[in-house]
Specification:
Distance between the termini: 19 Å
Order of helices and strands: HEEEEEEEEEEEEEEEEEEEE
CATH superfamily: Porin
Helix content: under 10%
Number of domains: 1
Shape: globular
CATH class: Mainly Beta
Length: 360
């Protein structure tokens, strides 16, 4: 879908909701069409640090979501369009079909085929169990996250347990990844057990979600073994969250990534935050904490801090969101990175982002 057709849909179809119902004495079915999306403008300012000059970038981000729902069949098509200006003479347009799937469901069974998001994670920060759709936690402008091309079969055994089987195409490749998940409830905790293969690696994992008193307690562990080289990789994460009586949401998390570095590199730009299922952070030991609060019904503030010991990396990332009018939000995000370089702990990158988002 090109830019012209995108603008046409935005202007002509701001909101479509159509219902068709068929009723008789013994049968009732409903067909529901819906169309929605958003248009965002993100301005990024990278402040000068040492030899890094000031940099300005702009991203116009549009998403179109079309869904068709009925009693036993569902379908969805979602398009992501981006107009990127990054100091080049001309902006670059990138359009992509983000979701495109059909689903058949019954009381216990669900079969979904096509481009979809398969999210098996339980934690909010790091998700070792998310073997199909790992993502960068600092990519705040991509709420929906990436999807994969595959088929998912879900069987709801009862209210407390289910089995899910997935086969998905490897991005930019012809091979397939596959896994099975068994979820159940035991001792007031939701549990899941995972086994499968991912790009030549066999993996097994476990995840849980429950509470200790009034504090939420979650965790995920995933273990990868390369059957060719015998390489073993462990990713493990735990997380706590708590809501205070005066409305503060507090949370903390820790991640162990066996592939991550345990020392400060000579060049921090060489580390990649483009995460993979078996490599969720460039550093091995990671801790983060944060808090958020609804300041007024229209204003929400957040603050977060990540620290990687041994590598001595710190990321400070506060944000503020304001609902100006219905369907229009203004947001400000800050990402400030400090680390040890040549024996000194100092800033290595500071960025400010200002975003306007209109939903329809």
């Amino acid at each position: 879908m090109g830019l012209v057709s995108t603008v046409f849909l935005l202007l002509v179809f701001p909101s479509i909701t159509t219902r068709a119902q068929k009723n008789d004495a013994e049968h009732s079915d409903a067909i529901h069409f819906s169309f929605n999306g958003y248009l965002k403008d993100l301005n990024s300012f990278r402040l000068p640090v040492k030899k890094t000059p000031f940099h300005y970038g702009n991203l116009v981000h549009n998403r179109l979501n079309l869904k068709w729902q009925s009693t036993h069949f569902n379908a969805s098509a979602e398009v992501r369009n981006r107009l990127i200006w990054n100091s080049a003479p001309r902006p670059t347009f990138v359009g992509k079909l983000e979701r495109g799937w059909i689903e058949h469901k019954s009381t216990r069974w669900s079969i979904k085929a096509g481009r979809q998001r398969i999210n098996w994670g339980m934690n909010n920060a790091w998700n070792p169990n998310d073997v199909f759709n790992a993502y960068n936690m600092f990519d705040f402008d991509y709420e929906e996250r990436a999807g994969v091309d595959g088929i998912r079969i879900h069987y709801q055994k009862n209210e407390m347990s289910a089995i899910e089987l997935v086969a998905a195409k490897v991005p930019a490749g012809k091979t397939m990844n596959g896994a099975i998940k068994y979820s159940f409830n035991r001792s007031n905790y939701d549990w899941q057990m995972i086994a499968g293969f991912n790009q030549g690696k066999i993996n097994i994992g476990v995840g849980w979600q429950g509470s200790i008193g009034e504090t939420g307690f979650k965790g995920e562990v995933q273990y990868f073994v390369s059957h060719n080289k015998g390489r073993q990789i462990l990713n493990a994460s735990v997380e706590f969250d708590h809501i205070t009586k005066n409305g503060w949401y507090l949370h903390g998390a820790a991640l162990f990534n066996q592939l991550g570095t345990t020392s400060a590199p000579s060049d921090w730009s060489s580390l990649s935050f483009q995460n993979k299922p078996d490599n969720l952070m460039p550093t091995r030991w990671n801790m983060m904490t944060g808090a958020s609060k609804e300041i007024t019904p229209l204003v929400n503030g957040k603050i977060g801090l990540l620290y990687a010991p041994f590598a001595n990396l710190m990321v400070f990332y506060p944000s503020l969101s304001v609902n100006v009018i219905t369907n229009l939000d203004l947001d400000v995000f800050v990402q400030s990175m400090l680390a040890t370089t040549h024996g000194n702990f100092s800033g290595i990158g500071h960025s400010i982002f200002a975003r306007a988002k209109y939903s329809f």
